[in-house]
Amino acid sequence: MFEVSGELKTYFEQLSKMDNPVLEKNQSTSRIDESRYISRDLSWIQFNYRVLDQAKHINRSIFDRLKFLAITATNLDEFCTIRLGSLYNYIDYGKERYDYSGMREEPFRKLLLNSLRNFVIDQHEYFLFKLKPLFRDHNFTLCPYGELSPEHVKQVNEYFINTIFPMLTPMAFDSYHTFPVLKNNRLLFGVVTKVMGDGQEMNRVSFIQVPSNIPRFYEIPGEDLLRFVPVEEIIRHNIQQLFRNVEIQSVNLFRINRRARCAYGSPG
Fold first, then answer.
1. Buried (b) or exposed (e) across 50-78, using 16+ Cβ within 10 A?
2. DSSP helix/strand/coil, 29
3. What distance in Å separates the CA atoms of residue 127 and residue 90, rounded to the nearest whole number?
4. Phi, psi of 224 (to 5 degrees)
5. What does the alpha-carbon distance between residue 90 and residue 268 come to, in Å, rounded to a whole number?
6. What angle do CA 100, 104, 107 make, to 5 degrees?
């Protein structure tokens, strides 16, 4: 039986509690149904669902199915950068914009964000409940750091010290440092530490970018199973090496997707 971690259960519960105007018969959906035109952005989401359907073909190899799933993720990044970014340009600068469906910018923003949220839920659930349980049948698995044997932990930690550690540089943000430049679509750690400042304890935020010039997973070959350990798991469990003699309050992994610089006159 495949089980989902507590964090993922909480994640899906929070998403399911959010308003979902896509599934409600409200004024927005009625206007879309009455429109003579097809919404460019909403139709793109349906296109990405068709790409996701390619990952659901059981006659394909597990690697092809994973590839199509990865394509939906890169498509989503591009969509948020270009199309969603264009919408926010109009909203932030108070410019009027009508979608092809006839909806104004703010109602359409809510509808679009909920459509994207629904897609991400479907995307994640299919990976977790359909594809990931098949990994061991094909002699490989994604192995969290906590499930490694003592021998493998030692091997992974040596990889961190010798390869990853020299490429990591914490970038602090406090009253003495400006906010650092964080690269787009890169995995980042946000680390909150407790330090002494002005005679009292205070929290300091630091950012650590996961290097892009190392493999995304560390491979541990075995006689009957090839284990892939995510590099962010290795960094998280060794992050104290970067903050020696400093108390760490919290460590969070995130990624930034910045919008593109679009002209107002570009097609909406």
1. eebeebeeeeeeeeebbebbeebeebbee
2. helix
3. 35
4. -125, 0
5. 9
6. 110
pLDDT at 48 over 70: yes
Please tell me the distance from the alpha carbon of residue 155 to that of residue 268, in angstroms, as a whole number. 52
pLDDT of 71 > 80? The answer is yes
Average pLDDT over residues 221-245: 95
Q: pLDDT at position 1, please?
A: 37
Q: What is the CA radius of gyration of the chain?
A: 22
Answer for the pair 48, 70: CB distance below 8 angstroms, yes or no.
Answer: no
What the block records as the tokens of 68 is 């199509």
Residues 92/106, Cβ–Cβ less than 8 Å = no
Its pTM stands at 0.80
User: What is the DSSP code (8-state) at residue 177?
Assistant: B
Query: CB of 156 within 8 A of CB of 215?
Result: no
Residue 203, strand partner residues: 194
Measure the CA–CA gap between 168 and 79, rounded to whole angstroms.
30
DSSP classification of residue 211: P
- Number of neighbouring beta carbons within 10 Å of residue 79: 20
What is the structure's pLDDT at 17? 53
Strand order in the sheet with 226-230: 140-142, 226-230, 217-220
Structural domains of the chain in order of their starting residue, each with its CATH number: 6-134 (1.20.58.310), 138-255 (3.30.1840.10)
